[in-house]
Amino acid sequence: MAASLRLGRQGILFGLRLSQFNKCVRKTNPWQEQVRRFFLSPWVLGGSPLKVEMPALSPTMEEGNIVKWLKKEGEAVAAGDALCEIETDKAVVTLESNDDGILARILMEEGSRNVRLGTLIALMVDEGQDWKQVEIPPPDAAAPPATHAAAAAAPVVPPAAPPPPPPPTPATSGPLRLSPAARHILDTHGLDPKLATATGPRGLITKEDAMNLLKTSPAPKAAPAMAAPAAPAAPSPAPIPVASPPPPGSRPNIPPLSVPGNPGAPGTFTEIPASNVRRVIAQRLTQSKTTIPHAYASVDCDMAAVTKLRKDLAKEQIKVSVNDFIIKAAAVTLKEMPEVNVTWSGDGPRALDSIHISIAVATDRGLITPIIKDAANKGVQEISANAKALAQKARDGKLLPEEYQGGSFSISNLGMFGISGFSAVINPPQACILAVGTSRAELRLREDDQTLRTQQLMTVTLSSDGRLVDDELASRFLDKFRANLEKPQRMTLA
Fold first, then answer.
1. Which end of the chain is more exposed for a tag (fewer CB within 10 A), N or C?
2. Across residues 268-276, what is the average pLDDT?
3. pTM of whole model > 0.90?
4. How far apart are CA 423 and CA 426, in angstroms?
């Protein structure tokens, strides 16, 4: 019993001494905590930052502009939160986060333009990690030095290639053959073409041959300047063309290129950078006019019934526009003639099951066509509300991709600008677009009683794809469209 008590007391004393020893070791070795943190850090454990790349926010998008960052560096981000606003080729779209974490680094600042798809625009880290220590992935940063090194090493090799002396070319049996660029260089610097070594096909002196000759013989550069004053002293008129100024100065009437700080000089210009929307509009219009055989047909519609119906609705505080009736009439006509509600694909015609009307809206960024979906099954008042909301979102640049993609028929109305009639360009892959002019008063002869009366006529022009809608089909479509518009009650029965 006494022995066990003695052993227990010795064990307690040994434990106390060991705990004091551990405290001393911890105090004398503060680097142990740093080592522990190092081996528990995400870098050692293989953690990597979350990449945020420029996404494709529309089918035709190839690059985008960073308009505004909605999150700051070091700010927590949840899945679904808005990260930034990106200007696509159609509108300004909000980019949402797919992951939870912390926004660690913004690589593309606000105002960055023409950012290609897949470009790294930001980095995120998981919650709990030190976002200040995040590093940019090396593959993107390692590529440019290699290209710069190759570009720096490239100019070193060509100077050793040209022969040191300028011997005459051995091929003197036939006339000299010079490329236009080589002839310009040799004439400008007053060099003899016979001294150039021809490396082109069939003895052609290329631009590179002229540049090599220019590098190896710098002395002839001063020859034209010395020969110019001597030429007028010669009595013979023959040398006069030889003493004429070099080609760059042979057009004194053409002003030089635009000089910064001198915008008012004649012949100058100001280069305006094209936005993504403008570039896509240019591409699609060029594609439309070069690949689609456009056919045009026009008809005059009597707007008396629509005008009277609008006045009756206004008395009941229901405000709708003429364009709303046009949209409804076009949708009902497409429902009655489904053979016009088609698009062109690579394999041929494609019939559409839904009737979505695209309406052209002019914005500061360019023309955009938001879509009124299922327009045939909507009333005029509902169409009016949708059109106003979509037009406002288009002007604000807030359209979603599904709000301007997938239309089956387009309408462009310039009547409010006083345009009497025009022809619109088809929006591919659609088959038709209807151009609407303003209404005008005309004196017409009535067929029933042979009396004159004033009519409010509006000219509409249908641009159709000749591969899908021929002239006969386009004529029947316009005839039925006119009947629906001149008698609005027919649209409720269709």
1. N
2. 76
3. no
4. 10
